[in-house]
Amino acid sequence: MPPQRPMKKKRRPGRVILVLLLVLLLAAVGFGFYVDSTLKRIDALPDYEGRPAETPGTTWLLVGSDAREGLTQEQKDALATGDAAGRRTDTIMMLHLPDNSAAKPVLLSIPRDSYVAIPDNNRNKINASYAFGGPQLLAKTVEGATGVRIDHYMEIGFGGFSDMVDAVGGVDICIDQPIKDPLAGIDLPAGCQELDGPQALRFVRTRAFATADLQRVQNQRKFLSALFEKVKSPATLANPFRVIPLMNAAAGSVSVNENDHVWHL
């Protein structure tokens, strides 16, 4: 009898696909923990006597600072940041995420020149609280002015803001009137257009309007909505050449409270 040929093992494509998916999942989880380990953490929300009580849902304090640390002079010129010393808050927003899935999130913009009581510093513009006492005093001032307890804190500076926009390939913005502001380094025509990182930074910073900061906060909200749409799109989330630079840009430039993590973000 001729020798029998050894039986070939049947290939199971389903098992191969399952293994590949498992490897991708582990890689994604590992990358997430790596990014979380690189986030800058600060004690922004310490307890204090008289602090507002906890409320249903989750409230974030979102801060855009004019921090220039780590920027070269060439980058400052490209971003039109100027060379002012110290740190202030160009953007202050409160984002409330309700526990009830039927309710909608609420985003509240706080103009930086809002005149409020700053603990131990009399009354002043709200962004002065950050200059006086950093994130802790800003958060305490916002809680005192609104009566709402802050659960999470996130802050981003000039350079990181621009890098995150570039990482997703720019954002699409529609404006009704042309914007020209030499101080902010911006000259945009009316209409819909894609803004890169430096252009987006100038767009959210300019106050060259009749209503100044009031129009600026509207532009900031418009930009934030456009950025979120771009970030959550399949073109970003399914593209490692975008999502990885985005996460790296966030990790290198975002500051959060001590108990906050990348999965909160």
What does this structure look like?
Helix content is 42%, strand content 21%. The protein has a 6-stranded mixed beta sheet, sandwiched between helices. It is globular. The model has no long low-confidence stretch (mean pLDDT 83).
Fold blueprint:
Elements: H1 13-38, E1 40-42, E2 58-65, H2 73-79, E3 89-97, E4 106-109, E5 115-117, E6 123-125, H3 126-146, E7 152-156, H4 158-167, E8 171-175, E9 179-181, E10 186-188, E11 191-195, H5 197-205, H6 213-231, H7 234-237, H8 240-253, E12 254-257
Parallel strand pairs: 1-12, 2-7
Antiparallel strand pairs: 2-3, 3-4, 5-6, 7-12, 8-11, 9-10
Extended strand count:
12
Strand content: 15-25%
Helical stretch count? 8
- Order the strands across the largest sheet as they lie in space: 1-12-7-2-3-4
Low-pLDDT runs of 5+ residues are none
The 3D shape can be described as globular
Structural class: alpha+beta
Distance between the termini: 70 Å
Largest sheet: 6 strands, mixed
Helix share of residues?
Answer: 40-55%
Order of helices and strands: HEEHEEEEHEHEEEEHHHHE
Task: Please give the radius of gyration in angstroms.
Answer: 23 Å
Q: Averaging pLDDT over every residue, what do you get?
A: 83
Throw out a few tags for this protein:
single chain; 265 residues; alpha+beta; 8 helices; 12 strands; globular
